[in-house]
Amino acid sequence: MRDSTFPTELFEAIIQEVRPCRLILPLEQDDFSEYRKRLYTLCSCARTCRAWAPTSRLCLYSRLIFISTEKKSFELLVRSLDGNPWLQTLVRGLSIIDNDDDYTPPIPRYSTASGSISHTWALMLMGKLPRLQDIGFALARGLACHTHLSRALRTFSTVTSLSLAWKHSGSFEDLLKLILVFPALRNLMIHGSLWTPNGRRELHVPPKEALSAPDSAHNRE
Length: 221
Prior knowledge:
With 221 residues, this protein is α/β, with parallel strands linked by helices.
């Protein structure tokens, strides 16, 4: 890998320009496609020369988004974090998205042959993301916090923001268990779910514009 002949300010400005924007769940098809394109561009920047690599890696690892069926790619991430512990401190956000035909809005479909990481990612990353702040889920079904998952999620003690978008979220009790797992949680955003007093779920899908408004997040003091 060669050294850069450009001023530091120039290539850092280029990298910041091509880095993916922060995405709001649930994703639009165009948003996710644009995210992937920018991700590939960042990978090219990281391989350009030695000087470009640190800033490119910072942008690549700061916020990670995985389709739940991309198990092999996720396992590659875990091996990278194990082999390069300094990368673990770069990750600030992580989102898991289900590869589901009925999910609205639609996302690109990938092969499901390698299995799903929806309920195993926390066990695989336990203790590896000391500075994780944001977690997001766009799932066909909610997460049931069984004992092993709850124990794994509690290790992400730095998480302050949780975003949820799912079609079948289970009971309100299940939601509370998931929320209370994160001791430092301050911001909660839920898309597509409301519950009646008896805990049954009713569908409610607000416009995406509402999700970006300051009052769309529910704060837990």
